[in-house]
Amino acid sequence: MRVVIAQCAARYSGRLNAHLPRATRAIMVKADGSVLLHSDGGSYKPLNWMSPPCTLRESEPLSDPAAAGVVRVWTVQHGKTDDRLEIDIFEIFSDTEHELGVDPGLIKDGVESHLQELLADHIALLGAGHSLVRREFPTAIGPVDILARDQAGRAVAVEIKRRGDIDGVEQLTRYLELLNRDPLLAPVVGVFAAQEIKPQARVLAEDRGIRCLVLDYEAMRGLDDVTARLF
Hints:
The chain has helices spanning 63-67, 110-121, 166-179, 199-207, 217-221, and strands at residues 2-13, 18-29, 35-38, 48-50, 54-59, 72-78, 84-97, 131-137, 144-149, 155-164, 188-197, 211-214. It is α+β, with helices and mostly antiparallel strands. The strands form two sheets. The protein has a seven-stranded antiparallel sheet with strand order 4-3-2-1-7-6-5, with no helix packed on it. A hairpin with a 5-residue loop joins strand 2 (18-29) and strand 3.
């Protein structure tokens, strides 16, 4: 991972247009190619970002930006769409790279882990004819909560959250991009499952062809499993 602390401004163009005025920010370039801009507030969520697949190109500024104090220009181009993130660097305070290695992924506990277990036990909640392949299906960036097959035999990747927000949709999107590179699995469709799904997350998911599923935890706990009956 490369972490740059710099005075910068940014412009995002494509499906939406956005602008970040000049300020000091942390720019993160991850091993999967994603680029994220962080401020010193706002918890964990970046101000703007580009998800993989994308390419980063660094160049000298044109005359007008150079006259305004820009010393480097970063252009991050998405590999499948016209989305582009352009970052004007005015001053770099720190530029470091760190090899983080392979992350084992998030180990879930509590309700979220139980939701995964319950949905795996009652996989028909995804729809008639669905069958479970396995829980915690491994990928290079962490395990997918559930991998299933639908009635037509297509692979289905399921990401489970207690509260579904945009970050969860982004996480599932990254999993789908990786899984769809595997010819033995592709095409893989996505299901974003949560007890509560925020409207913005639902809009983003549906825009990306990801189906949303609201989970009723108490109802799932009370589902009658006829195979567990004595009589």
